[in-house]
Each structure stands twice: as C-alpha cells, then as structure tokens.
Amino acid sequence: MEDVEDSTAKVFGAGLPRAKRFAELLEQHGVERGLIGPREVERLWERHLLNSAVIGERIPDGVSVVDVGSGAGLPGIPLAIARPDLEITLVEPMARRVDWLAEVIEELDLDVRVIRGRAEEKVVRAEIGTADVVTARAVAPLARLAGWCLPLLREGGMMLAVKGASARDEVTRDAAAVSRVGGGTPTVSECGAGLVEVPTTVVIIERIRPQAPEPGKRRRNAVGVRSKRRG
C-alpha cells in the first residue's frame, strides 16, 4: 500500500490543494461546529477524505451525483474535488450544516449545489429530478436508506452506500426491503485497495424498476381521486 501522502496525490491529482484546504477547514472548525468528533482530527485523511474520494472508482464519467445526508460534506466534497467531471448535489436537512457546506463550496470554488431538506421530501425530490448516482455515508440502515435514495435515481441508476463491517449482514437482512422499493440485488464492493490501509466498503444497488405500491392501497389517478370503472 502507498503511504498517505502518495495516495492523496494520486487520488486528488490537480485538486490536491483544494483537498488540503478542506482538511484544514475540518481541522479548524469541524469539532466546534459538531461536524466531526475530537478523535477524528488526527485521521482526517485516511478515515474521511480518502475514504470518501475513492468511491469515485465506481462512478462513470460526467454523471449526476446526489449525496444524501452530506453532513460535513462526506463523501460529496472530496468526491467533487477528486472528480470535477461530476455534477454533484449535496442534500442536508440541518441548517447549520447547510451553512457549513455553502461556506466550504465558496472557499474551495467548487461547482456544487446544496439543497436543504430530506431525501424523502417531495419538494426535495422535485428539485433534484432523477440522478445517475446517489451516495450516502453513515446515514441509516440499508432498508431505510434504499427507500430514501432509490426514488432519486433514474432506472438503471446506482446507489452507493458507504458502510462498515456490518455491510454484508445488512445486505442479507434488507435485500427483500430493497427489492420492494425498486432495487436490484445489493452487492458489496471495496474501493481504494492499495491506496488506503482499510479499503472503503460500499453497498451497490441498481434501481431496476419503480417502487412497488403498498399492499392494500388502490392506485389513484393524477388528481388523487380513486379511479372508478365507467359503466
């Protein structure tokens, strides 16, 4: 495995100065603003910046990406720095974190959009439209996360959920729930092998169909009135 300095240069390329500035901002303000824990400051690069950026290995060129529950900007900001070809939108419900994201985007001069709200809200879904890729890191269990994220994707789009050691257990437990909301069979993959000491574990889910209607509910027509047979 390469050392951290070599890895950062390889992963971020021409964006390395921006990545270093983002690390400085997190180090200076992350703890006091409730974005990261005190113990995370000493491992910002390995555990957070590189861990986030390497998921770009799984993302095609030039696609639209929505980062759900972006928080401190992870993985969205490192991904935007490492992959300027991507069209990235950050979604975050907390006002103070939205303020932080806006400040970072301005400071780093990134072409990134921020939306305040939750992925499951109709107004947020309407503003986003449909994306090619949705990312999420340490947001929620897989079943709940799929219900929030898959509706943001076009059919054939891909959800990348950054997970820890529980990834395979979550896939086994939640595969049926994922299918009900239109997802294909979840697969577990690793990103950053040879670049980071512990590769990033990602659960990959393709949106293969619309969400199935809930049992017991009849479809409604466009104005929300129960459809009736005409006699």
From TrEMBL:
Major location category of this protein: cytoplasm
EC class: transferase
Cellular component terms per the entry's GO annotation: cytosol
Superkingdom of origin organism: Bacteria
The entry's keywords: Cytoplasm, Methyltransferase, rRNA processing, S-adenosyl-L-methionine, Transferase
One Pfam family recorded for the sequence: GidB
Documented EC number(s): 2.1.1.-
InterPro entries: rRNA_ssu_MeTfrase_G, SAM-dependent_MTases_sf
Family note: Belongs to the methyltransferase superfamily. RNA methyltransferase RsmG family.
Protein name: Ribosomal RNA small subunit methyltransferase G
Organism: Amycolatopsis pithecellobii
